[in-house]
């Protein structure tokens, strides 16, 4: 099924000549998968959850950072709808022209550092990082404070901080390429592979044996891997993926709950409704009404 991806317009964030925007948000299940007309850097400030980006599903926790170019679709989801299951993400978004100025025009005019790995021409896909000593978090703290206070020259200060952040990422890519590839999170790791397999076969019965074959590990090893990476058992993770797909279908299609349940591998409607209420905190019809109301706001 082709994804229904919402395009987020630059005009929603940039006005009065300001071409950079910083915020801090609590991610919700109601937000649709979306792509942008601008470049975005996302930082996981608190909590844990999942980041669906392109055709990948990544487990994320505090300290993860993503550099996302124009046109890449993505959405963050908390681990569950429980009140204590929060996923707080910081976003720094800016126009493509800013990226070009900082990584290309400035080096040409001021003889400053010439970027090799980051820039309008160098970036063909998203890149993911993991902070080592709160270096990303500290910088995002300063950027958000500067943006909110909007004091004299704050736009220039934000550009300077963005340049600092881009240089941190450039250094990480440079050292990671030659010395420590583990600094960059590889999207094709085993956890990503098994989650992607689940998402591609939710309409079918999925067993632990099936997953084990995909990642070439024993069943007990897979169980330990899933628990260590997600905090969930194999069964709990599979249920969560089925219900999250149900949420997407409720948001983006007009299909009824009875039509959606078998599409996610749940053929007993009583079980489907019970599991949905348990994980999301509301019935499927209540979720549909809530998500449609959120889009209209």
* Mean pLDDT across all amino acids: 85
**Range of strand content:** 15-25%
The CATH C-level class name of the largest domain: Mainly Beta
What would CATH call the architecture of the largest domain? Sandwich
Ends distance: 27 Å
Enter the CATH topology name of the largest domain.
Jelly Rolls
What is the string of helix and strand elements?
EEEEEEEEHEHHHHHHHHH
Shape: globular
The number of domains is: 2
Number of strands: 9
Based on CA atoms alone, the radius of gyration comes out at 21 Å
Provide the structure class: alpha+beta
Q: So, the CATH homologous superfamily of the largest domain?
A: Regulatory protein AraC
Which residue ranges are poorly predicted, with pLDDT under 50 across at least 5 consecutive positions? 177-188
Q: Count up the helices.
A: 10
Helical content class: 40-55%
Task: Tell me about this structure.
With 297 residues, this protein is an alpha+beta fold. The chain folds into 2 domains: 178 residues, Regulatory protein AraC (Jelly Rolls, Sandwich); 107 residues, Arc Repressor Mutant, subunit A (Orthogonal Bundle). 46% of the residues lie in helices and 19% in strands. The strands form 2 sheets. Strands 2, 4, 5, 6, 7, 8 and 9 form a 7-stranded antiparallel beta sheet that branches. It has a two-stranded parallel ribbon with strand order 1-3. Helix 2 packs antiparallel against helix 3 and helix 7 packs across helix 10. The two termini are 27 Å apart. About 4% of the residues have low confidence.
């Amino acid at each position: 099924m082709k994804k229904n991806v919402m395009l987020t317009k630059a005009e929603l964030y940039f006005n009065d000549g300001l071409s950079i925007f910083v915020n801090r948000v609590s991610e919700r299940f109601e937000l649709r998968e979306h792509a942008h007309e601008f470049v975005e850097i996302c930082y996981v400030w608190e909590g844990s959850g999942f980041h669906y980006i392109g055709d990948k599903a990544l487990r994320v926790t505090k300290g993860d950072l993503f550099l996302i170019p124009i046109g890449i679709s993505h959405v963050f989801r908390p681990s569950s709808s429980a009140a204590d299951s929060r996923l707080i993400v910081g976003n720094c978004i800016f126009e493509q022209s800013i990226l070009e100025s900082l990584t290309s025009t400035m080096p040409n005019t001021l003889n400053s550092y010439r970027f090799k790995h980051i820039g309008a021409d160098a970036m063909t896909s998203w890149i993911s990082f993991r902070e080592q000593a709160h270096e990303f978090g500290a910088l995002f703290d300063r950027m958000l404070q500067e943006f909110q206070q909007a004091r004299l020259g704050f736009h220039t200060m934000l550009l300077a901080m963005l340049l600092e952040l881009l240089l941190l990422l450039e250094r990480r890519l440079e050292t990671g390429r030659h010395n420590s590839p583990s600094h960059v999170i590889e999207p094709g790791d085993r956890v990503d592979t098994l989650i992607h397999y689940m998402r591609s076969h939710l309409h079918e019965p999925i067993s632990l044996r099936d997953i084990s074959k995909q990642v070439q590990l024993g069943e007990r090893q897979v169980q330990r891997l899933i628990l260590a990476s997600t905090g969930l058992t194999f069964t709990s993770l599979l249920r969560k993926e089925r219900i999250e797909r149900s949420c997407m279908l409720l948001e983006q299609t007009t299909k009824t709950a009875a039509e959606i349940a078998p599409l996610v591998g749940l053929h007993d409607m009583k079980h489907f409704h019970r599991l949905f209420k348990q994980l999301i905190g509301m019935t499927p019809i209540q979720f549909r009404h809530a998500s449609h109301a959120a889009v209209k706001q």
